[in-house]
Amino acid sequence: MRRVWLTALATALGMTPRAHAQEAAPTEPQTLRVVYLAPAGCGSRATFVAELEARTPRFRAADGAETIASITVELADRSTGIVGQLRLREPNGTETLRAVAGKTCEEVVPALALIAAVLIDPESTTRTPVAAAASAPSGSPPPPANATAPARAPRDSEAWRLRPSFGAGLSVTSTVAPTPSVAPSLELGLEAERGSRRGPLLLLSFERFGAKTVTTDAGLADFSTLLGRLTLCPLRWPSDGLVYVAPCGAFEAGSLHVDVADTVDEQEPTVPWFAAGPGLHIEARPLRVLGVELDLLGIFPLVRDSFYFSPDFPVFSVPVFGWTGRLGIKAVWP
What we know:
Elements: H1 2-12, H2 17-22, E1 30-37, H3 45-55, E2 59-62, E3 70-78, E4 81-89, E5 95-102, H4 105-120, H5 130-134, E6 160-173, E7 181-194, E8 197-210, E9 214-216, E10 219-233, E11 243-261, E12 270-287, E13 290-301, E14 306-308, E15 314-317, E16 322-332
Parallel strand pairs: 1-2, 1-3
Antiparallel strand pairs: 3-4, 4-5, 6-7, 6-16, 7-8, 8-10, 9-10, 10-11, 11-12, 12-13, 13-16, 14-15
Helix pairs in contact: 1-4, 3-4
């Protein structure tokens, strides 16, 4: 955070024609049109205007389309963090462009407001922000000109929010047939965030496993399993960054079905499937709205059935323990 602010201050104090022109400008407020472009949950125009008004009395926001000076703020979410750009445009077409990068919107938006304040009013660096002055106790002496404003209360963007997701992938398991079974997988997700910090993750996936045909002297058997899996990951670490891991717990419910052929008694049993176990969720986020995920699960079947063509021809018994792996890609709501 300190690095972002120092970068913003150094950028704002750079040799710009507007900054020098303002040293001799009158103290009347300047009317500027403010345009704010940012991803959902990354501050707002009102937040930026409030930050700017707190730093200089020489600014007044206008909503009209008249030909006046304007400030355009653009924020973009990159894999390395938030990149903000500020463009100050004069009525005659002259433009001043500045940029700041940081980990979160809460770092970048105030830094851009500081840059804008210095470009409009170079003396703003020696003033105490309005918010800091207002917080002083009644009757106390005014703070020095270079006093640092106290930390602000969390903004609305730092409240907990839920982001749904939809994904698809491929799963492999060792638990529902004599040989490893493969299934296409659909996944619905819900993840909690607070600002840029990751919170708990809830996943609901649907899979239909199929395996190679089991061939015996007594006949043929095809195993298929349709199940739903609920996975809860209470912690994701690290809480920000490109890649994270999460310890999870999973519960499965569904049915295991056997198709038989080339046998005397062609019964086709369907039995319930219940299982639970621990897991590990690993995910990379090259973009805020795109995830590539790997799930590794240890499966403990809660119902263990055995399948025979006859007492002399055992086919498959559900094991005490098995494993499931899933690789997928998902889209996340901004």
